[in-house]
Design goal:
The protein has 74 residues and is mainly α. 81% of the residues lie in helices and 0% in strands. The longest helix has 43 residues.
């Protein structure tokens, strides 16, 4: 029974680390996307809204998951 508890604890810790890494990567993706949108709006003299930039980022994430295309090397 002790072996099962240690396996569950190890698996739980691994899952937590993976979740934290994925959350950090999505955070960096959000910051970069919003930063690029901010630069574009500054270039054109448009108003920048975080909600619009976040919406664009969410649409990009959804489209990337729907159209997940991988290129195979020949």
């Amino acid at each position: 029974m002790s072996s099962l508890k240690s396996k569950i604890a190890t698996g739980g810790a691994t899952a937590l680390v993976v979740i934290l890494i994925i959350a950090a990567l999505y955070g960096v993706s959000w910051i970069v996307t919003c930063g690029i949108i901010k630069l574009i709006t500054m270039c054109f003299g448009w108003t920048f809204k975080w909600s619009i930039a976040t919406g664009v980022w969410l649409i990009i994430c959804i489209l990337r998951s729907i159209f997940n295309v991988t290129v195979k090397n020949k």
